[in-house]
Structure to design on (138 residues):
């Protein structure tokens, strides 16, 4: 068992009461949870500790509050009645970098790999067989 979490956010939180559990009780809970319970029982145990509350305010009633356009742009809305707004994040723009192709032509695959792919064709729809037949190989 690792040491107690010492994160400042945990100490300042009004919802987390980690520091109120003494070391002996903490070790007892750990041994019980990981030593005595199976996966199904662990899920039940955790669910019994969670307090479920209703959502007080939904931001949007839409199934999707964001959409992706064919040109690669993204739009969002916070409320269902809002119009779509363009999403302009600097980090998103940095992520959209064009990369030069590594090869200018298809690479040959090894003869054994080609043989294995031919043997697997029986599980593929016949429409895809010409692709595998035309693979460049040694």
């Amino acid at each position: 068992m690792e040491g107690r979490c010492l994160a400042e956010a945990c100490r300042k939180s009004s919802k987390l009461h980690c520091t109120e559990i003494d070391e002996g009780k903490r070790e007892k809970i750990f041994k019980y949870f990981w030593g005595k319970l199976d996966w199904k029982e662990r899920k039940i145990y955790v669910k019994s500790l969670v307090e479920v509350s209703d959502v007080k305010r939904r931001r949007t009633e839409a199934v999707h509050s964001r959409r992706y356009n064919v040109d690669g742009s993204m739009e969002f809305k916070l409320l269902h009645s809002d119009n779509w707004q363009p999403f302009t994040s600097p980090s998103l723009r940095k992520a959209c970098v064009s990369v030069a192709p590594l090869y200018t032509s298809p690479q040959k695959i090894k003869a054994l790999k080609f043989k294995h792919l031919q043997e697997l064709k029986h599980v593929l729809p016949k429409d895809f067989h010409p692709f595998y037949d035309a693979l460049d190989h040694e």
Observations:
- Strands lie at 66-68, 74-76, 85-86.
- Residues 106-138 form one domain.
